[in-house]
Amino acid sequence: MRLPSLRSGHALPVLSVLSVLSLLSLLSLLSAPSVLAQDTTTYTHADTLKGSLTAPERTWWDVTFYDLHVKVNPADSSIRGWNGITYTVVGPTDEMQ
Length: 97
Description:
By secondary structure, the protein is of the alpha+beta class. Helix content is 31%, strand content 31%.
């Protein structure tokens, strides 16, 4: 099978390694703004432990009691249990996080 040609008898040039590298460099430069636009918010250790109340899924309810039941079994290194949560609804929504 013959490659398509520009002129009769002359095949189109195949992309060289240099052309491929140039194309990859151009694509990486085009994606650079998304890297530069990343969130640079600094979080405290307390933020990491408790999260924050910025999403609607977390602000419509107020926990009043955690009923935590835990059974630790050192023999097989397992933990079993369940947690009941009592909360007060403080705003309208249909999602909970």
